[in-house]
Amino acid sequence: MSTTPPPQTSKTAPQDTAHPATPAPQTGADGAFGWLRDLGPRGRRAFAGAFGGYALDSYDYFTLPLSMVALAAYFGLDSGQTGLFTTVTLVVSAIGGALAGVLADRIGRVRALMLTVVTYAVFTVACGFAPSYEWLLVFRALQGLGFGGEWAVGAILVAEYASARNRGRTLGAIQSSWAVGWALAAVMYTLVFSFVGDDLAWRVMFWTGALPALLVIWMRRRVQDAPEAVAVREQSAEKGSFTAIFKPGLLRVTVFAGLLSTGVQGGYYTLATWVPTYLKTERELSVVGTGGYLTFLISGAFAGYLTGGYLTDLLGRRRNIWLFALLSAVCILAYANIPSGANTLLLVLGFPLGFCMSAIFSGFGSYLSELYPTAVRGTGQGFTYNTGRAVGAVFPTM
User: How far apart are CA 164 and CA 26, in angstroms?
Assistant: First the structure.
Protein backbone atom coordinates (compact mmCIF):
# COMPACT_ATOMS: atom_id res chain seq x y z
CA MET A 1 0.00 0.00 0.00
CA SER A 2 2.87 2.36 0.59
CA THR A 3 3.55 2.31 -3.12
CA THR A 4 0.16 3.86 -3.97
CA PRO A 5 0.48 7.62 -4.53
CA PRO A 6 -1.72 10.03 -2.58
CA PRO A 7 -4.84 10.21 -4.73
CA GLN A 8 -5.38 13.93 -4.59
CA THR A 9 -1.93 15.31 -5.23
CA SER A 10 -0.50 12.98 -7.87
CA LYS A 11 -0.95 13.31 -11.59
CA THR A 12 -2.78 9.96 -11.60
CA ALA A 13 -5.90 11.51 -10.10
CA PRO A 14 -7.02 14.40 -12.30
CA GLN A 15 -9.16 16.96 -10.55
CA ASP A 16 -12.57 17.87 -11.89
CA THR A 17 -15.49 20.00 -10.83
CA ALA A 18 -17.72 17.07 -9.93
CA HIS A 19 -15.39 15.59 -7.35
CA PRO A 20 -12.85 18.17 -6.11
CA ALA A 21 -9.55 17.10 -4.66
CA THR A 22 -9.74 15.85 -1.09
CA PRO A 23 -7.62 17.66 1.50
CA ALA A 24 -5.85 15.88 4.32
CA PRO A 25 -8.36 13.91 6.38
CA GLN A 26 -9.88 15.86 9.22
CA THR A 27 -12.68 15.39 11.69
CA GLY A 28 -15.98 17.17 11.31
CA ALA A 29 -17.37 19.71 13.74
CA ASP A 30 -21.04 19.07 13.05
CA GLY A 31 -21.86 16.46 15.70
CA ALA A 32 -22.35 12.73 15.45
CA PHE A 33 -24.71 12.99 12.48
CA GLY A 34 -23.28 16.09 10.85
CA TRP A 35 -22.15 13.95 7.93
CA LEU A 36 -25.79 13.00 7.25
CA ARG A 37 -27.06 16.59 7.38
CA ASP A 38 -24.16 17.59 5.14
CA LEU A 39 -25.57 15.45 2.32
CA GLY A 40 -28.66 17.62 1.81
CA PRO A 41 -32.14 16.27 0.88
CA ARG A 42 -31.10 14.68 -2.43
CA GLY A 43 -27.98 13.21 -0.92
CA ARG A 44 -29.92 11.68 1.96
CA ARG A 45 -32.29 9.99 -0.48
CA ALA A 46 -29.27 8.69 -2.39
CA PHE A 47 -27.83 7.46 0.91
CA ALA A 48 -31.09 5.64 1.73
CA GLY A 49 -31.17 3.99 -1.70
CA ALA A 50 -27.54 2.86 -1.53
CA PHE A 51 -27.91 1.73 2.10
CA GLY A 52 -31.00 -0.33 1.31
CA GLY A 53 -29.51 -1.75 -1.87
CA TYR A 54 -26.35 -2.91 -0.13
CA ALA A 55 -28.26 -4.34 2.85
CA LEU A 56 -30.45 -6.41 0.54
CA ASP A 57 -27.39 -7.33 -1.53
CA SER A 58 -25.90 -8.73 1.68
CA TYR A 59 -29.15 -10.50 2.55
CA ASP A 60 -29.29 -12.23 -0.81
CA TYR A 61 -25.61 -13.17 -0.63
CA PHE A 62 -25.91 -14.81 2.80
CA THR A 63 -28.87 -16.96 1.86
CA LEU A 64 -26.28 -19.35 0.42
CA PRO A 65 -23.69 -19.67 3.23
CA LEU A 66 -26.44 -20.03 5.82
CA SER A 67 -28.12 -22.77 3.77
CA MET A 68 -24.87 -24.54 2.87
CA VAL A 69 -25.26 -27.54 5.20
CA ALA A 70 -28.83 -28.21 4.01
CA LEU A 71 -27.80 -27.83 0.37
CA ALA A 72 -24.90 -30.25 0.79
CA ALA A 73 -27.22 -32.84 2.31
CA TYR A 74 -29.97 -32.31 -0.30
CA PHE A 75 -27.72 -32.64 -3.34
CA GLY A 76 -25.09 -34.91 -1.75
CA LEU A 77 -22.22 -32.43 -2.14
CA ASP A 78 -18.72 -32.45 -0.71
CA SER A 79 -16.97 -29.37 0.70
CA GLY A 80 -15.22 -28.63 -2.61
CA GLN A 81 -18.53 -28.53 -4.47
CA THR A 82 -20.20 -26.30 -1.89
CA GLY A 83 -17.17 -24.00 -1.83
CA LEU A 84 -17.49 -23.70 -5.60
CA PHE A 85 -20.83 -21.92 -5.11
CA THR A 86 -19.04 -19.00 -3.49
CA THR A 87 -16.14 -19.02 -5.93
CA VAL A 88 -18.44 -18.93 -8.97
CA THR A 89 -20.56 -16.18 -7.42
CA LEU A 90 -17.55 -13.99 -6.71
CA VAL A 91 -15.82 -14.63 -10.05
CA VAL A 92 -18.92 -13.71 -12.03
CA SER A 93 -19.51 -10.77 -9.68
CA ALA A 94 -16.24 -9.33 -10.94
CA ILE A 95 -17.66 -9.27 -14.45
CA GLY A 96 -20.91 -7.78 -13.18
CA GLY A 97 -19.09 -5.19 -11.11
CA ALA A 98 -16.88 -4.08 -13.98
CA LEU A 99 -19.86 -3.81 -16.33
CA ALA A 100 -21.92 -1.95 -13.72
CA GLY A 101 -19.08 0.53 -13.29
CA VAL A 102 -19.04 1.25 -17.02
CA LEU A 103 -22.83 1.61 -17.05
CA ALA A 104 -22.67 3.99 -14.08
CA ASP A 105 -20.40 6.28 -16.09
CA ARG A 106 -22.48 5.99 -19.27
CA ILE A 107 -26.15 5.88 -18.21
CA GLY A 108 -25.93 7.27 -14.68
CA ARG A 109 -25.40 6.00 -11.13
CA VAL A 110 -29.04 5.51 -10.19
CA ARG A 111 -30.05 3.62 -13.32
CA ALA A 112 -27.07 1.31 -13.00
CA LEU A 113 -27.83 0.79 -9.31
CA MET A 114 -31.44 -0.22 -10.00
CA LEU A 115 -30.28 -2.62 -12.70
CA THR A 116 -27.90 -4.39 -10.32
CA VAL A 117 -30.59 -4.72 -7.63
CA VAL A 118 -33.11 -6.23 -10.05
CA THR A 119 -30.50 -8.68 -11.35
CA TYR A 120 -29.43 -10.08 -8.00
CA ALA A 121 -33.04 -10.28 -6.77
CA VAL A 122 -34.33 -12.19 -9.81
CA PHE A 123 -31.59 -14.80 -9.79
CA THR A 124 -31.65 -15.26 -6.01
CA VAL A 125 -35.32 -16.22 -6.32
CA ALA A 126 -34.44 -18.48 -9.26
CA CYS A 127 -31.98 -20.37 -7.01
CA GLY A 128 -34.96 -21.48 -4.94
CA PHE A 129 -36.41 -23.29 -7.96
CA ALA A 130 -33.16 -25.04 -8.96
CA PRO A 131 -33.83 -28.74 -9.77
CA SER A 132 -30.18 -29.80 -9.56
CA TYR A 133 -26.73 -28.80 -8.33
CA GLU A 134 -25.74 -27.69 -11.83
CA TRP A 135 -28.75 -25.41 -12.22
CA LEU A 136 -28.19 -23.93 -8.79
CA LEU A 137 -24.59 -23.21 -9.76
CA VAL A 138 -25.77 -21.43 -12.93
CA PHE A 139 -28.39 -19.33 -11.10
CA ARG A 140 -25.93 -18.43 -8.36
CA ALA A 141 -23.40 -17.33 -10.95
CA LEU A 142 -25.97 -15.10 -12.64
CA GLN A 143 -26.92 -13.68 -9.25
CA GLY A 144 -23.29 -12.63 -9.00
CA LEU A 145 -23.74 -10.26 -11.97
CA GLY A 146 -25.96 -8.00 -9.89
CA PHE A 147 -24.24 -8.68 -6.59
CA GLY A 148 -20.91 -7.52 -7.98
CA GLY A 149 -22.07 -4.13 -9.17
CA GLU A 150 -24.28 -2.85 -6.36
CA TRP A 151 -21.63 -1.73 -3.89
CA ALA A 152 -19.36 0.05 -6.36
CA VAL A 153 -22.22 1.98 -7.97
CA GLY A 154 -23.95 2.84 -4.69
CA ALA A 155 -20.69 4.01 -3.12
CA ILE A 156 -19.95 6.32 -6.03
CA LEU A 157 -23.49 7.73 -5.99
CA VAL A 158 -23.17 8.72 -2.32
CA ALA A 159 -19.49 9.76 -2.52
CA GLU A 160 -20.41 12.41 -5.09
CA TYR A 161 -22.87 13.98 -2.65
CA ALA A 162 -20.56 13.77 0.39
CA SER A 163 -18.03 16.43 1.34
CA ALA A 164 -14.35 15.46 1.48
CA ARG A 165 -14.31 16.05 5.26
CA ASN A 166 -17.11 13.54 5.91
CA ARG A 167 -16.72 11.12 3.02
CA GLY A 168 -15.06 8.37 5.05
CA ARG A 169 -17.75 8.16 7.74
CA THR A 170 -20.53 8.55 5.17
CA LEU A 171 -19.28 5.61 3.12
CA GLY A 172 -18.53 3.70 6.33
CA ALA A 173 -22.22 4.06 7.24
CA ILE A 174 -23.15 2.68 3.82
CA GLN A 175 -20.82 -0.27 4.45
CA SER A 176 -22.56 -0.94 7.77
CA SER A 177 -25.70 -1.88 5.84
CA TRP A 178 -23.89 -5.10 4.89
CA ALA A 179 -24.10 -6.13 8.56
CA VAL A 180 -27.79 -5.15 8.62
CA GLY A 181 -28.53 -7.43 5.66
CA TRP A 182 -26.41 -10.19 7.22
CA ALA A 183 -28.39 -9.89 10.46
CA LEU A 184 -31.71 -10.05 8.59
CA ALA A 185 -30.51 -13.18 6.79
CA ALA A 186 -29.43 -14.78 10.09
CA VAL A 187 -32.83 -14.04 11.67
CA MET A 188 -34.67 -15.42 8.64
CA TYR A 189 -32.42 -18.49 8.65
CA THR A 190 -33.21 -19.16 12.31
CA LEU A 191 -36.96 -18.81 11.72
CA VAL A 192 -37.19 -20.75 8.46
CA PHE A 193 -34.96 -23.64 9.50
CA SER A 194 -36.73 -23.89 12.87
CA PHE A 195 -40.21 -24.32 11.35
CA VAL A 196 -39.58 -25.79 7.89
CA GLY A 197 -37.81 -29.03 7.03
CA ASP A 198 -34.28 -28.67 5.65
CA ASP A 199 -35.28 -30.04 2.22
CA LEU A 200 -37.63 -27.09 1.68
CA ALA A 201 -36.12 -24.48 4.01
CA TRP A 202 -33.17 -23.65 1.75
CA ARG A 203 -35.60 -22.97 -1.11
CA VAL A 204 -37.68 -20.65 1.09
CA MET A 205 -34.52 -18.75 2.02
CA PHE A 206 -33.79 -18.04 -1.63
CA TRP A 207 -37.41 -17.09 -2.38
CA THR A 208 -37.28 -14.34 0.24
CA GLY A 209 -34.66 -12.73 -2.01
CA ALA A 210 -37.51 -11.05 -3.90
CA LEU A 211 -37.61 -8.26 -1.28
CA PRO A 212 -35.29 -5.86 -3.20
CA ALA A 213 -37.96 -5.32 -5.86
CA LEU A 214 -39.74 -2.97 -3.45
CA LEU A 215 -36.60 -0.86 -3.10
CA VAL A 216 -36.28 -0.44 -6.88
CA ILE A 217 -39.82 0.96 -7.11
CA TRP A 218 -38.96 3.59 -4.48
CA MET A 219 -35.58 4.44 -6.00
CA ARG A 220 -37.04 5.01 -9.44
CA ARG A 221 -39.22 7.82 -8.06
CA ARG A 222 -37.02 9.37 -5.39
CA VAL A 223 -33.28 9.03 -6.06
CA GLN A 224 -31.20 11.13 -8.49
CA ASP A 225 -27.55 11.39 -9.49
CA ALA A 226 -25.50 14.30 -8.15
CA PRO A 227 -25.99 17.26 -10.55
CA GLU A 228 -22.25 17.76 -11.06
CA ALA A 229 -21.83 14.11 -12.05
CA VAL A 230 -24.62 14.44 -14.60
CA ALA A 231 -22.93 17.50 -16.12
CA VAL A 232 -19.57 15.73 -16.43
CA ARG A 233 -21.21 12.64 -17.99
CA GLU A 234 -22.93 14.76 -20.62
CA GLN A 235 -19.73 16.61 -21.54
CA SER A 236 -17.12 13.85 -21.37
CA ALA A 237 -16.03 12.02 -24.50
CA GLU A 238 -14.17 9.31 -22.53
CA LYS A 239 -16.85 8.35 -20.03
CA GLY A 240 -17.00 4.69 -19.03
CA SER A 241 -13.82 3.73 -20.87
CA PHE A 242 -11.80 0.68 -19.77
CA THR A 243 -8.93 1.97 -21.85
CA ALA A 244 -8.74 5.16 -19.80
CA ILE A 245 -8.03 3.41 -16.48
CA PHE A 246 -5.08 1.57 -18.05
CA LYS A 247 -3.44 4.62 -19.57
CA PRO A 248 -0.06 5.66 -18.09
CA GLY A 249 -1.63 8.26 -15.83
CA LEU A 250 -3.92 5.73 -14.07
CA LEU A 251 -2.31 2.34 -14.72
CA ARG A 252 -0.31 2.26 -11.48
CA VAL A 253 -3.34 3.23 -9.41
CA THR A 254 -5.49 0.57 -11.10
CA VAL A 255 -2.94 -2.22 -10.52
CA PHE A 256 -2.31 -1.46 -6.85
CA ALA A 257 -5.96 -0.79 -6.02
CA GLY A 258 -6.78 -4.20 -7.53
CA LEU A 259 -4.11 -5.89 -5.41
CA LEU A 260 -5.38 -4.18 -2.27
CA SER A 261 -8.94 -5.33 -3.00
CA THR A 262 -7.73 -8.89 -3.58
CA GLY A 263 -6.05 -9.19 -0.20
CA VAL A 264 -8.92 -7.73 1.78
CA GLN A 265 -11.74 -9.57 0.03
CA GLY A 266 -10.04 -12.95 -0.24
CA GLY A 267 -9.81 -13.18 3.54
CA TYR A 268 -13.25 -11.71 4.16
CA TYR A 269 -15.20 -14.03 1.87
CA THR A 270 -13.39 -17.09 3.17
CA LEU A 271 -14.66 -16.25 6.65
CA ALA A 272 -18.13 -15.22 5.47
CA THR A 273 -18.51 -18.49 3.55
CA TRP A 274 -17.23 -21.01 6.08
CA VAL A 275 -17.94 -19.62 9.58
CA PRO A 276 -21.63 -20.77 9.57
CA THR A 277 -20.59 -24.28 8.45
CA TYR A 278 -17.73 -24.30 10.96
CA LEU A 279 -20.08 -23.42 13.82
CA LYS A 280 -22.62 -26.08 12.87
CA THR A 281 -20.30 -28.98 11.97
CA GLU A 282 -16.99 -28.49 13.80
CA ARG A 283 -18.45 -26.86 16.92
CA GLU A 284 -21.68 -28.92 16.68
CA LEU A 285 -24.03 -26.03 17.37
CA SER A 286 -27.77 -26.18 16.69
CA VAL A 287 -29.54 -23.88 14.23
CA VAL A 288 -30.50 -21.53 17.07
CA GLY A 289 -27.02 -21.81 18.56
CA THR A 290 -25.37 -20.94 15.25
CA GLY A 291 -27.66 -17.91 14.93
CA GLY A 292 -26.69 -16.80 18.44
CA TYR A 293 -22.98 -17.00 17.73
CA LEU A 294 -23.45 -15.17 14.44
CA THR A 295 -25.22 -12.38 16.35
CA PHE A 296 -21.96 -11.51 18.11
CA LEU A 297 -20.03 -11.66 14.83
CA ILE A 298 -22.57 -9.49 13.01
CA SER A 299 -22.84 -6.98 15.88
CA GLY A 300 -19.08 -6.61 15.78
CA ALA A 301 -19.24 -6.11 12.01
CA PHE A 302 -21.83 -3.34 12.30
CA ALA A 303 -19.79 -1.51 14.95
CA GLY A 304 -16.63 -2.04 12.91
CA TYR A 305 -18.06 -0.48 9.77
CA LEU A 306 -19.15 2.65 11.62
CA THR A 307 -15.95 2.96 13.66
CA GLY A 308 -13.78 2.34 10.63
CA GLY A 309 -15.63 5.10 8.78
CA TYR A 310 -14.78 7.64 11.47
CA LEU A 311 -11.18 6.46 11.69
CA THR A 312 -10.89 6.74 7.91
CA ASP A 313 -11.55 10.47 8.21
CA LEU A 314 -9.44 10.81 11.37
CA LEU A 315 -6.35 8.74 10.46
CA GLY A 316 -6.54 8.73 6.68
CA ARG A 317 -7.72 6.09 4.20
CA ARG A 318 -4.59 3.95 3.99
CA ARG A 319 -3.72 4.04 7.70
CA ASN A 320 -7.17 2.69 8.54
CA ILE A 321 -6.65 -0.22 6.13
CA TRP A 322 -3.19 -0.98 7.57
CA LEU A 323 -4.49 -0.93 11.16
CA PHE A 324 -7.36 -3.33 10.64
CA ALA A 325 -5.42 -5.65 8.35
CA LEU A 326 -3.08 -6.34 11.27
CA LEU A 327 -5.85 -6.60 13.86
CA SER A 328 -7.88 -8.93 11.61
CA ALA A 329 -4.93 -11.32 11.34
CA VAL A 330 -4.61 -11.47 15.13
CA CYS A 331 -8.34 -12.10 15.62
CA ILE A 332 -8.51 -14.83 12.96
CA LEU A 333 -5.59 -16.73 14.49
CA ALA A 334 -7.19 -16.49 17.94
CA TYR A 335 -10.65 -17.54 16.71
CA ALA A 336 -9.35 -20.56 14.79
CA ASN A 337 -7.32 -21.89 17.72
CA ILE A 338 -9.95 -21.85 20.47
CA PRO A 339 -10.06 -25.27 22.23
CA SER A 340 -13.04 -27.47 21.34
CA GLY A 341 -14.68 -27.14 24.76
CA ALA A 342 -14.39 -23.37 25.06
CA ASN A 343 -17.50 -22.29 23.16
CA THR A 344 -18.07 -19.33 25.51
CA LEU A 345 -14.73 -17.89 24.45
CA LEU A 346 -15.71 -18.54 20.83
CA LEU A 347 -18.87 -16.51 21.43
CA VAL A 348 -16.98 -13.59 22.97
CA LEU A 349 -14.27 -13.49 20.30
CA GLY A 350 -16.92 -13.29 17.59
CA PHE A 351 -17.40 -9.58 18.30
CA PRO A 352 -13.77 -8.41 17.79
CA LEU A 353 -13.42 -10.74 14.79
CA GLY A 354 -16.50 -9.22 13.12
CA PHE A 355 -15.35 -5.73 14.13
CA CYS A 356 -11.87 -5.95 12.60
CA MET A 357 -12.76 -7.87 9.43
CA SER A 358 -15.39 -5.23 8.62
CA ALA A 359 -13.69 -2.00 9.72
CA ILE A 360 -11.05 -2.53 7.06
CA PHE A 361 -13.74 -2.07 4.39
CA SER A 362 -14.97 1.27 5.68
CA GLY A 363 -12.35 3.30 3.85
CA PHE A 364 -12.76 1.49 0.54
CA GLY A 365 -15.66 3.51 -0.80
CA SER A 366 -14.03 6.88 -0.16
CA TYR A 367 -10.51 5.74 -1.05
CA LEU A 368 -11.33 4.15 -4.41
CA SER A 369 -13.73 6.91 -5.43
CA GLU A 370 -11.02 9.53 -4.82
CA LEU A 371 -8.49 7.73 -7.03
CA TYR A 372 -10.36 8.37 -10.31
CA PRO A 373 -11.85 11.41 -12.09
CA THR A 374 -15.63 11.57 -12.47
CA ALA A 375 -15.77 10.44 -16.11
CA VAL A 376 -14.24 7.03 -15.30
CA ARG A 377 -14.93 6.80 -11.55
CA GLY A 378 -17.51 4.04 -11.95
CA THR A 379 -15.27 2.12 -14.33
CA GLY A 380 -12.19 2.43 -12.12
CA GLN A 381 -13.88 1.60 -8.83
CA GLY A 382 -16.01 -1.16 -10.35
CA PHE A 383 -13.02 -2.81 -11.99
CA THR A 384 -10.54 -2.66 -9.10
CA TYR A 385 -12.99 -3.62 -6.36
CA ASN A 386 -14.45 -6.52 -8.31
CA THR A 387 -11.18 -7.76 -9.75
CA GLY A 388 -10.06 -8.13 -6.15
CA ARG A 389 -13.27 -9.98 -5.41
CA ALA A 390 -12.76 -12.36 -8.36
CA VAL A 391 -9.13 -13.22 -7.57
CA GLY A 392 -9.98 -13.49 -3.88
CA ALA A 393 -12.80 -15.85 -4.80
CA VAL A 394 -10.42 -18.78 -5.11
CA PHE A 395 -9.70 -18.59 -1.36
CA PRO A 396 -13.01 -20.12 -0.12
CA THR A 397 -12.61 -23.14 -2.40
CA MET A 398 -8.96 -23.55 -1.42
Answer: 9
Q: Which of the four CATH numbers 3.20.20.30, 1.20.1250.20, 1.10.1740.10, 3.30.365.10 does domain 36-375+380-392 have? A: 1.20.1250.20
What's the Cα-to-Cα distance from 53 to each of 112, 121, 329, 369, 370, rounded to whole Å? Answer: 12, 10, 29, 18, 22
Distance between CA atoms of residues 304 and 315, nearest Å: 15
Other CB atoms within 10 Å distance of the CB of residue 350: 24
Residues in the chain: 398
pLDDT tens column, 194-241:
999 989 999 999 999 888 878 888 888 888 888 887 887 777 666 667
Taking only the tens place, the pLDDT of each residue in 103-125 is: 988 888 999 999 998 998 999 99
CA pair distance 326, 352, nearest whole angstrom: 13
C-alpha distances (whole Å) from 322 to each of 63, 173, 240, 251, 329 are 31, 20, 31, 23, 11
Q: What share of the chain is helix, strand, coil (3-state, %, to 5)?
A: 80, 0, 20
- The answer to whether residues 229 and 18 touch, using CB atoms and an 8 Å cutoff, is yes
Domain boundaries, the chain: 36-375+380-392
Of 126-135, 245-254, 285-294, least confident by mean pLDDT is: 285-294
Give the helix/strand (H/E) hosting 364.
helix 364-369
pLDDT at residue 6, rounded to an integer: 40
The answer to whether 183 and 298 are in contact (CB under 8 A) is yes
Average pLDDT, the chain: 82
Residues in CB range of 302: below 8 A, 6 or more apart? 176, 179, 180, 183, 354, 358
pTM of the model: 0.75
Distance CA 230, CA 173 (A): 24
**Ramachandran angles phi, psi of 162, nearest 5°:** -80, 150
